[in-house]
UniProtKB/TrEMBL annotation:
UniProt binding sites for heme c 3: H117
Gene source species: Megalodesulfovibrio gigas (strain ATCC 19364 / DSM 1382 / NCIMB 9332 / VKM B-1759) (Desulfovibrio gigas)
Binding site for heme c 1: H50, H53, C62, C65, H66, H67, C113, C116, C127, C130, H131
Manner of cofactor binding, per the entry note: Binds 4 heme c groups covalently per monomer.
Necessary cofactors: heme c
Protein name according to UniProt: Putative cytochrome c class III
InterPro entries registered for this protein in UniProt: c3_cytochr_TmcA, Cyt_c_III, Cyt_c_III_dom, Multihaem_cyt_sf
Length: 137
């Protein structure tokens, strides 16, 4: 008698597939930047269609945005895709002593997004172009 595929193995296989597929879905479905770190947001959520944006902007290097950290310094080679920016950049650093010496989240986003648009001369610079009232959560 040979029963090679155990139900447990199948279950684990399915589970690992799910883990691989889920982040890909959420990232390609993304149309605005996650607001959870800003519970009292003043502006509509910033428009950011992750995959479409990066295709149009020809950004293949994930580390251009998802930089990692080495010895407390930002390190684009040590990428962090899948880790929320807010894990390292607190919306309110005063409330999080571990992150006090790091750039606050809102500033980090503005430096990264607006910074590249300024540098390349492409992409929106005006508040209302990113924080568009039509963008939905
Ligand atoms: C290139 C896009 C872009 C531009 C231009 C931009 N922002 Fe933002 N802003 C963001 C992103 C991304 C976040 C973080 C995610 C979010 O809040 O939607 C953010 C967050 C914020 C927040 C914190 C969250 C909130 O709503 O309270 C404020 C306030 C804000 N921006 C105000 C402004 C103002 C004022 C301007 C113009 C001077 C501006 N932004 C221009 C992308 C942009
Ligand atoms: C122009 C900047 C930019 C580039 C380039 C970029 N991303 Fe992102 N990505 C973001 C932002 C901003 C978020 C939202 C982060 C947050 O919520 O903290 C995000 C979120 C994600 C998420 C989490 C999705 C979710 O819904 O939580 C994954 C996974 C991801 N990116 C993977 C990638 C991969 C892989 C690449 C390279 C092929 C890449 N990203 C390139 C900006 C970028
Ligand atoms: C693993 C931790 C980590 C993650 C995740 C991370 N960062 Fe950073 N980031 C750092 C560190 C460390 C620095 C250097 C110290 C500083 O300036 O805050 C830095 C610096 C920056 C700077 C430069 C600030 C300056 O003054 O030049 C920007 C902009 C920035 N991060 C934006 C982002 C954005 C946007 C995301 C999410 C897409 C992100 N970071 C994700 C750790 C991280
Ligand atoms: C490394 C460079 C770079 C970074 C970082 C970047 N962008 Fe852009 N963005 C571009 C370029 C280039 C374009 C113009 C693409 C085109 O040719 O249409 C653009 C276009 C846009 C547009 C208009 C086109 C569209 O997709 O709707 C929006 C909105 C936008 N960016 C938002 C953001 C936000 C929000 C962030 C930060 C989370 C961000 N960008 C970070 C380079 C960048």
């Amino acid at each position: 008698m040979r029963r090679t595929t155990s139900p447990l193995l199948l279950f684990l296989l399915g589970l690992s597939l799910l883990v691989w597929v889920l982040p890909a879905f959420s990232q390609s479905d993304m149309v605005v930047v996650n607001r959870d770190p800003f519970p009292k947001a003043q502006r509509p959520a910033a428009k950011f269609e992750h995959d479409a944006h990066n295709e149009k902007a020809k950004l293949e290097d994930c580390g251009a945005c998802h930089h990692g950290e080495t010895d407390g310094k930002m390190d684009p080679a040590n990428t962090s895709e899948g880790t929320p920016c807010a894990d390292c950049h607190a919306a309110n650093p005063a409330a999080d002593p571990k992150l006090q010496h790091k750039t606050p989240l809102r500033r980090a986003y503005h430096l990264q997004c607006v910074g590249c648009h300024e540098k390349t001369g492409k992409g929106p610079l005006a508040c209302g172009q990113c924080h568009a009232p039509t963008a939905q959560e």
